[in-house]
Amino acid sequence: MTERATPLPAPLSAPLSLVADGPLRGRVKVPGDKSISHRALMLSALAVGRSEIDGLLEGEDVLATAAAMRAMGAGVARDSTGRWQVDGVGVGSLLQPAPALDMGNSGTSTRLLMGLLASHPITATFIGDASLSKRPMGRVIAPLGRMGAEFQASPGGRLPLMLRGAERPLPLRYRLPVASAQVKSAILLAGLNIGAETVVEEPIATRDHSERMLKGFGADLSVEPLDGGGKLIAVRGWAELKPQKLVVPGDPSSAGFPMVAALIVPGSDILIEGVGLNPTRDGLVRVLQMMGGDIVAENPREVGGEPVADLRVRHSVLKGIEVPPDVAPSMIDEYPILFVAATMAEGRTVMRGIEELRVKESDRIAAMAAGLRAAGVTVEELEDGLIVEGSGGSKPAGGATVATHLDHRIAMSFAVLSLMTRAPVIVDDRAPISTSFPDFLPLLLGLGARELSISS
Ligand code: S3P
Hints:
alpha/beta, 2 domains
């Protein structure tokens, strides 16, 4: 039951610390968007025929999705040019996966695939790493259970978990109790194999890649705006999905790391090419600009149905602000790196309404507060947020080893902080970075950062 679909190569576990000897300079390209990459593989596997995907993120999370789609009958292969080809089997035709589906560190793979399988007569076991095995799955089990799927989960609604998809799935009308694109997407994907209308009401808009891409693949989907900024999304299943040629834009979440690095290292001036700026994802850029960050979107264009631009980022004197809580859904993964930007700002930055950070790959409020404190930054941890006292540009003390808790974004955030501390900040483990940004280190080194050699 715990045999793996495809063993993933174990990334190198080693500490990491960086130094900025001078300004960061140059042009870089961040990897493909993680959310879009997962959906590209899943929807291509459900289309009838061959889809092609350029710019797919080849991080471990997305490779876990690729392995799962393969285990359920889709042909998923990468050619020598880096283009991915997916031979889809059609909605309703997924096969029962023989081994357990190993989701690694990936909450998105897990929750979206649980949705997909909930309306197929398939039994599957989901397993994951220690971080994923702590994350709550009840938020998808509840609605998918109402659609007829059955679950045997570990205590607290966690992985390992066995799902028995419904023979005769029921349509659902569901109001999201948490602002979660994963829960929304799980229900919409389940709705694809139901010959009636499934409706999700989201009172607060979250990333809309599923809606955009489902429409692009030919699903029968409508979106209606609600008063107060929310949306009503309806999908009528059993439409045949048509194979697509997809181009994945650069991930704005990954772009956040070089962006903040350039803002805080004096004299820096960089260009990050092809960054996705979907309005449900661009909150970090808007907040950093509110703080006085010199970030200019150049050459705006459309890639794969998403707004994209090149971001020119120059070192800036940042000012602490009260970050409006309603921006949170559009930058939920970017708070750890925003905390780092706040450490260098003039005055205090107050961030509230982000309790969801406590159930990400780690408790990101606690993990960041602990590491920042250890590095000499004054922070106040709130139940739903963090207050950071900025240094006004002077370097924090550093001189600490910080724990990443199997969380890629914690690892990268502290690696960026390490550029600007008086004594080294050492990230205890660089391995999690490969889940979303395998080229993070070469990219920063290419901009002029130096890796500190750490003797063990
Ligand atoms: C994601 C949604 C967000 C985000 C995650 C990716 C997605 O999670 O944190 O990294 O691709 O739908 P939630 O739905 O839990 O907010």
